[in-house]
Amino acid sequence: MGTVTPHTSWHDRAARLRPCADALIDGELVESRSGRRFAKSSPVDGRFLASVAEGDAPDVDAAVSAARRAFEAGVWASTAPRDRRRAMLDWARAIVARREELALLVTLEVGKPIRDALSEVDYTAEVIEFYAEAIDKTYGEIAPSGQDALPLVTREPMGVVGLVIPWNFPLSMAAWKLGPALATGNSAVVKPAEQSPLSALELARLALESDIPPGVLNVVPGFGETAGAALGRHLDVDKVSFTGSSAVGKLFLSYAGESNMKAVSLECGGKSPNIVLADAPDLEAAAAAAAAAVCLNSGQMCNAGSRLLVERSIRDDFAALVAEEMKGWQPGDPLDIETRMGAVVDEIQLGRILDFIAAGVEEGAELRLGGGRALRETGGSYVEPALLTNVDNAMTIACEEIFGPVLATIDVDDPAHAVRVANDSRYGLAAAVWTRDLTRAHRVARALRAGTVYVNCYDTSDINVTFGGYGESGIGVDKSLHAMEKYTRFKTTWIDLQR
Ligand code: NAP
Ligand code: MG
């Protein structure tokens, strides 16, 4: 897709950035009803980025009303599918055209390396494009009920959907939801994470410029406990699709129960096992993937391969290889195009990561590498990747999602033991197995309780496959055409042909 303008000084551009930080309701940029704003600063170097409109229940009300009006008026839901396709394809093109500005916002908001932010923008456009293309290529059904009837099974948009987004991939997580939700004709109210409101607002502004009508896509920045909860409890929201922690995911199930029984889809956390068996086809490649699986995005990935399960016979050699690879992931300036690992999202997250590492050592794990705070002089929030060995699966660092570049290595005796340890988790988002034996690969993949299993790779994917979790990793899937199902409901229309 797009390219980087040569000789761009990301630092100069960052200094000139004046992001939009109002709420976006009914096609207008507006103050919050209370007039309150909150300060958003950057984990890159602590700089102040923007004073953001702090939405709360009245703002959510206004956004939901606007979304409802747009839905009922049919300005989006009832337009010809090909027109919706064109508008969304325009939106995807606008995202590519503004690639560098969007990437800069993401890097400054959440501290990820600019090269990863650029990839995220490209991927976001690709996701929107995928669902745009699908709009006029998905069909209903005629049930085979004999000559006397014509039973139609069709899918209808839900109406108003609330989309609650995390900060780790602020654009692509939004796109995983907005793509299928808008493609199927819904109107949406987005509540971005408090750490990443700016890129979400810019993404939505580009949608408005691309003939997606006012009111169809609204953004209410604010805090989870107020704006997020108001969306979860709203009586006129038909569906909430949430990505974030399992603890907050459970709250959304409660909100639905306390209010209008709205449908709820959840993409939550993980503690994903990456199993390396002694017959792995390429131990160097496995080690590189194991390091990337927990260092990419500073480990702030729901599917991070944070538990490394290694067959005992290769444990020492493999730990040495992984340590070498992890040394190549030292944190650096996120605005330098060469940097592989940037900051973590904020000081709170940094503190949590350091506490988890300390708990691991306290409980008897061996800290083989890193684990300290880094680049303090920048004023930003950085941590060295940490490798812990001799971890027991019952330790805190093997049970809790850390959301940082912290790898817990656990020894296993054989494939069966590996599967038992892998499945001994309340999560089940992703898993991987490395083996050259095809039958063993299939058997292990079948036995793993995880929504995605990687074989001889980690975190390799495409938009056309599902992504979702078992257990407390969630309910429902994002990605692929199946994601469109969760923003629609079935309707049967039974036409009697006897009279
Ligand atoms: P989080 O704290 O659960 O927040 C997610 C979203 O929920 C944010 O918009 C947040 O708003 C909102 N929220 C927080 N408390 C709320 C409450 N009491 N009521 C209603 N809404 C509330 O998660 P995060 O720290 O942003 O993201 C990290 C988590 O996301 C990790 O657990 C990770 O595994 C998960 N994740 C999962 C996937 C997946 O596809 N499975 C993908 C990415 C991330 P505020 O930010 O304003 O509090
Ligand atoms: Mg919060």
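^ magnesium ion complex. The chain has a mean pLDDT of 97. The pocket of magnesium ion (ligand 2) is lined by residues 194, 223-224 (CB under 6 Å).
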